[in-house]
Design brief:
Length: about 70
C-alpha cells in the first residue's frame, strides 16, 4: 500500500517525505507492529502523525487501505 501511496503523492507533486498525516485502515490491529516496521522503511525519520483504524467486515475481496495528507 505504501508504494501505491508514494506513487499517488509523487504524481501530484508531493511525497511521503512531506506528508503530515498517514491513516491506515486495518482489519486486525494485531498487524500494527508490522505496519509500524514497514512505515519505518518508507517514511522519514521525523515521520508524520499516524492513525491506525481497525475496520470491521468491508466485503469479500476488498482490502483495507491508506490515505495521507501532504504538502504539494
Amino acid at each position: 500500500m505504501l508504494e501505491g501511496l508514494r506513487a499517488i503523492l509523487e504524481a501530484a507533486g508531493s511525497s511521503l517525505e512531506i506528508a503530515v498525516e498517514v491513516t491506515a485502515y486495518q482489519t486486525d490491529t494485531d498487524d500494527k507492529p508490522g505496519f509500524e516496521r514497514v512505515c519505518g522503511e518508507y517514511l522519514p525519520e521525523d515521520a508524520p502523525g499516524r492513525i491506525t483504524a481497525e475496520v470491521g467486515f468491508i466485503g469479500p475481496g476488498i482490502l483495507p487501505g491508506m490515505d495521507a495528507i501532504a504538502f504539494a
